[in-house]
Amino acid sequence: MSNPSLLILPGDGIGPEVMAEVSKIIDWFGAKRGLKFDVSEDLVGGCAYDKHGTPLHDDTMAKAQEVDAVLLGAVGGPKYDVLDFSVKPERGLLRLRKEMDLYANLRPAQCFDALADFSSLKKDVVAGLDIMIVRELTSGVYFGEPRGIFEEGNERVGINTQRYTESEIDRVARSAFELAMKRGKKLCSMEKANVMESGILWREVVTEVGKDYPEVELSHMYADAGAMQLTRWPKQFDVIVTDNLFGDLLSDLAAMLTGSLGMLPSASLGAPMENGRPKALYEPVHGSAPDIAGQGKANPIACILSFAMALRYSFDKGDEAARVEEAVNAVLADGLRTADLLGEEGVQPVSTSEMGDAIVAKLEASL
Ligand code: NAD
Ligand code: IPM
Ligand code: MN
């Protein structure tokens, strides 16, 4: 049988820097655990625009459709701010999500013990935190029509449309209920049914799907109140399901519960392919961090944990995923910190590659 295939798209800014550390982990699994991948690499985002005049070449899109999983670093940067909207780096990422139909974006926020003191919230609020945000990723206001900037009388109007069909809500709700069944059997759905019709439909459909999961305790919250509750007492949540835009905002917020945006991984999953694996793209929640790009300061952990999610969700290697997570936990417990995690007195930051090397050393020690 051939090896599972991975397409790596490092992207822009710190994307290639953090992905280089993931490559070390992939190589280690090939050499030491007999887990070999056929890896290919390509361009997405600003670097693809520089070469091809488009943030995602059709050939790259076709490759992404064929492989068992895609790993993506980050896209974007100030250099590309001047580009026309249709070719901005972010359009490349959105096209991947849409054409691969990756409707369920899993964004776990876990607070590692060694970082409990590091959050901007009090230690007892975040210690032991382990929540999962399921963000709908292929619809909503990100993709709804009509959209654009139009002339209206003597001024312009900017339009985006929030739009959800019942089936779009149904499938992401099912993903969230399935996850809740494997976790703490609690699901909170967030929308704004008090002001948006799409929110009313969202609540109705999620409630209906919930009848198929009687063991899961389902609750509903308005998304603004949800943001407040996430900072007040985040441990009240197990799984949260929400739409594309609210999920974008709430997952950045959740990142800071764990100490840094540089810690949060994600998995974007679609329907199962012929081989039973879901279509999948794995990427950190953070962006290309132009303010620290090229300085060896980026925290590679979000990207490394995204690869761990690939092991779990695409390759059925939950034990090996846990091995990576344990290695991350161990380096943090040793006090290793990239610059985004500083704050404790007298601690010198390690570089991106030193952090990657230390995680590989912990993997080695786990054998
Ligand atoms: P950002 O996530 O790139 O950065 C926000 C802040 O967090 C910055 O101060 C940055 O230095 C810090 N940070 C982020 N990741 C870090 C890491 N791994 N280690 C240490 N510090 C880290 O968000 P932004 O500044 O709003 O956006 C910059 C660019 O990235 C924009 O073009 C945006 O569209 C793009 N973006 C891309 C993605 C993606 O590719 N998935 C996600 C978010 C933003
Ligand atoms: C994210 C990012 C993206 C989004 C951008 C870069 C398109 O913020 O993955 O969270 O808004 O979905
Ligand atoms: Mn975001």
UniProtKB/TrEMBL annotation:
Binding positions (Mg(2+)): D224, D248, D252
Metabolic or biological pathway: Amino-acid biosynthesis; L-leucine biosynthesis; L-leucine from 3-methyl-2-oxobutanoate: step 3/4
SMART domains recorded: Iso_dh
Residue numbers binding substrate: R97, R107, R135, D224
Entry cofactors: Mg(2+); Mn(2+)
Record flagged with keyword Magnesium: yes
Catalytic activity, EC: 1.1.1.85
Cofactor note: Binds 1 Mg(2+) or Mn(2+) ion per subunit.
Domain spans labelled Isopropylmalate dehydrogenase-like: 5-359
Residues the UniProt record annotates as site (Important for catalysis): Y142, K192
Gene Ontology terms: biological process: L-leucine biosynthetic process
SUPFAM superfamilies, A to Z: Isocitrate/Isopropylmalate dehydrogenase-like (SSF53659)
Gene Ontology molecular-function annotations: 3-isopropylmalate dehydrogenase activity; magnesium ion binding; NAD binding
Residues annotated as binding NAD(+): 77-90, 287-299
InterPro entries for the chain: IsoCit/isopropylmalate_DH_CS (IPR019818), IsoPropMal-DH-like_dom (IPR024084), Isopropylmalate_DH (IPR004429)
Function (record text): Catalyzes the oxidation of 3-carboxy-2-hydroxy-4-methylpentanoate (3-isopropylmalate) to 3-carboxy-4-methyl-2-oxopentanoate. The product decarboxylates to 4-methyl-2 oxopentanoate.
Protein name: 3-isopropylmalate dehydrogenase
Native species: Rhodalgimonas zhirmunskyi
